[in-house]
Amino acid sequence: MKTINLLRAITATVMAGAVSSAVAAYAQITRVPAPALANPNRPQADWHPAPDERFSALEFIVKTGDDDLRGDSGAWVTITFPDHSSQKCDLKLRDQDGWGNNSTHTNSPQCILSSPKTFADLKGSEIVLFYEGESSSGWESQDNWDIKEVLVRAQDFSNKKYPCLIHAQGSPLVRLKRKFPETYIVYAKGDFYDDAFDLSQTPNMC
Q1: Strand-pair partners of 104
Q2: What per-residue confidence (pLDDT) applies to 24?
Q3: I want to staple 167 with a disulfide (CB 3.0 to 4.6 A). Which of 13, 14, 28, 205 is the partner?
Q4: Domains in the chain, ordered, with CATH?
């Protein structure tokens, strides 16, 4: 009888240990974090727009670096398309609030294209960012501006497609400097500006 009771005790102990191990293993499994979701805005390597797909606007997202863009300064882009037509889109008007250090800004309203373009047209376009750094009070220094990151996305609203066109960043990507009164540049279409940066020639992370 004692032998039978001893065997039963051993069996119960082994089974309890097995259950405890199984519970611990299950707990470990349930604690494994879920895989991170991929950025839904990240362009797919195998994505190719249809040749006849048209994009009607561009979205510009700009992040400043360690030097802000003041409220009395302005920024805009000019887009020169492969057919040599061009248009201007404002990013920040001179009467709008300043862009603080290390802040992110999206152009509003978006840059509506004068006529819808294919993605190939947009990829073949020259996109230049211009800036006019102003100082409205005599005691302020002239306004310079650090740009840390720029993201440009094409906008196909009807098909809900917003592919990355340009994505560039650095520390900073570029420092734009106020040149007046030493030099004051006049843009061909009558816009005054101090400095410019060709986004279409920068290394593209899209």
Answers
A1: 63
A2: 43
A3: 205
A4: 55-201 (2.60.60.20)
